[in-house]
Structure formats: C-alpha cells, structure tokens
Amino acid sequence: MRVLITGAAGFLGSHLCDRFIDDGHSVVGMDNLVTGSPDNVAHLIGHERFRFVDHDVTEFVYVEGELDGVLHLASPASPADYLELPIKTLKVGSLGTHKVLGVAKAKGARFLLASTSEVYGDPQVNPQPESYWGHVNPIGPRGVYDEAKRFAEAMAMAYQRTHGVDARIARIFNTYGPRMRPNDGRVISNFIVQALRGQPITVYGDGSQTRSFCYVDDLIEGLYRLFGSDVSGPVNLGNPSEYTIAELAEIVREETGSDSEIEHLPLPEDDPQVRRPDIGRARSELGWEPGVSFRDGLRRTIEYFRTLQEEEGLGEPPVLAEERPGA
Ligand code: NAD
Ligand code: UDP
Asked: How many A from CA of 33 to the centre of ligand 2?
C-alpha cells in the first residue's frame, strides 16, 4: 500500500509512519511542524519508501501518484497547544479535514480520522461508549478542539454517505510514550519531567479528576487494525484502566524515585471530571485490547525522558495551565 499520513512529525503520527514502513508499505508523511518535530521522523529520512512533505493541510493538498489510504492525524493535541493555537486548531479540524477527504475521494483511498475522547466533552456517563453523544461546551476554551473534531467526524461521515469514501473514525483516549515533547503540557510528560528535575509536581484542582492512559504501542496497533478493518463509524481506542490525577502523581513519584513535592494549582476551565473508554467495540470488531500495563508503559516513558535529559537536556520547563492564554 501507499498511504498519506498527516501529522507525520508528531508524537502519534511518527509512530504510525514507523508501523506502515515496518510492514513494507510506502508512506508520504505530511506536516507543517506547528507542534511536531523533524527529529521524530529523522530516522526515516532517506528511506526509499518514505517521503516527507512540509505542508499545511489547511491549504490545497497535492500528492502525486496513487494512494490506498489517507490517515489524518494533523492537529494540535495537547490542551496547552490548542489553547495557544485556537484558530489553527479549528482550521485544521475543519478546512484540513475537508482537504484531505478531497484527496481520499480523488484517489479512491480509504480514510482514517484521528478523532478524540474530547468529542465526549466533560462526560456525564462513565465509561464512555461510542453511542454517547457527549457533553461539550462549544464556547468554552476547549471548544476549539472538541468542536473541530466533532466537525471532522461529521465531515468524514458526509463524505462517506455522499461520495462513498470509505471512512474510519478512531476516538483516541489519552496516550503517552516516547516522542512526547517534554514541555507539551500534558499530564504524563509534565509529571515525569517535574519528577526528574526535582521540581514540584503540579496537580490541578484536588486531583480527583480521572483519566485512562494508553501506551503508544498499543494505540498504534489499534489504529493500524482499525484502518485495515471494515468497521465504519467511530471506535474508541484507549486503555480502560482509570486513575485519578492525584494517584498518577504518586505513581510517577514512586517510579522515578523522586522526592518532588505535590503542588496544587487551579483546575482549568471545563476540565473533564472523568474519562474512561468503553472498548467493547474495539474488542469485538478488531480483536484489539491494550497489552502494556500502566506501570510498564510508564517505566518505558520515564526511561525515554531520562535518556533525553542525559543526552540533550529537557529544554524549557513544562507548560502549566496557569500560563496558558486566557488563564
Ligand atoms: P502532536 O501535536 O504530537 O502531533 C500533531 C502533528 O500535526 C504535529 O506534528 C503538527 O505539527 C501537525 N499539524 C498540526 N496542524 C497541522 C496542519 N495544519 N498541517 C499539517 N500538519 C499539522 O499530537 P499527537 O498526540 O501526535 O496527536 C495526533 C493526533 O491524534 C491529533 O489529531 C490528535 O487530536 C489525536 N489524538 C491524540 C491523543 C493523544 O493522547 N496523543 C488523544 C486523542 C486524539
Ligand atoms: N493536569 C495536572 N497537572 C498538569 C497537567 C495536567 O493536574 O501539570 C491534569 C489536567 O487538569 C487534566 C489531566 O491532568 O485533568 C489530563 O490533562 P492533559 O493536559 O494531559 O490532557 P486532557 O486529558 O485534559 O486532554
């Protein structure tokens, strides 16, 4: 197969490129590097089956030659990023999704959208099944991301119904692992980096809010299977083991051997109180479930950040919610 992967220089996009290349396929990786890094795909540059194109997918997208698949991962994904880039986030979810669906239609390629658990907003049911319509504040700060992704899902379904584009929708829950940016502001990277530096671990609110964390290798396997399947309609991909953020802070302290203090900062507006995927559909339709335990995945991620710290340093301190625009 020959596939286009947008967001190829990002955390998940770069791992997905690796997966397609390792399986013998050809990949055109497209990215404008707004939140990604060329370092993530440096090892693929020069590979005969990989080509990198520096391009903003909100502008007309041209790809020469045939394509069997278009996998659309381009979008800021960390709250710190999308709150700093609200209009770019809305544009890539709407205009960008429209452009790449146009490419899929023109090439007769299968389309996969990297959607998100954020389409459920601050959910009033836990765990969240795909049938749940969500509880999103469209005019709140997070609305720029949530609504862009909801629009993207609607656009993918419209192209499927109207133009017969074969569309897959992955609703991805919090995923972590190597190649996350040390200062991307997400909770796992923030806590590990703070622990490794001996700085206070910043828990927002009282830490009773929950998240369910999936290791990157598991998530990529799920995306790959979903792309290869005949399941149309959304599929949740995530790890159902759920932790409070306060528990997470303790686990990170333990696993890093750090004596960092816990510091409580204000809870950001509209921060979801709970989040946990119902992965019944992925289990039955894809035969997929996560295999990496949270402690194992965390150890691998800590190892990654430790090596980064030794080799090139961890760069700027983590971005905190109180430093975000509008805070
Ligand atoms: P990331 O920020 O590391 O990667 C996103 C990539 O998209 C970056 O390389 C960025 O430069 C690129 N990009 C953004 N706008 C672009 C544009 N207009 N044109 C071209 N490239 C553009 O984030 P990630 O964690 O790898 O997320 C990848 C996708 O998965 C996103 O669509 C995100 O919404 C979705 N997702 C991720 C998670 C997660 O936990 N990581 C959870 C839910 C959904
Ligand atoms: N969080 C935190 N401290 C941090 C970063 C995040 O307590 O330094 C909390 C945040 O308020 C949220 C959870 O951790 O409740 C997950 O945040 P993240 O930014 O990783 O992603 P989200 O799941 O909110 O999109």
From this structure: 23
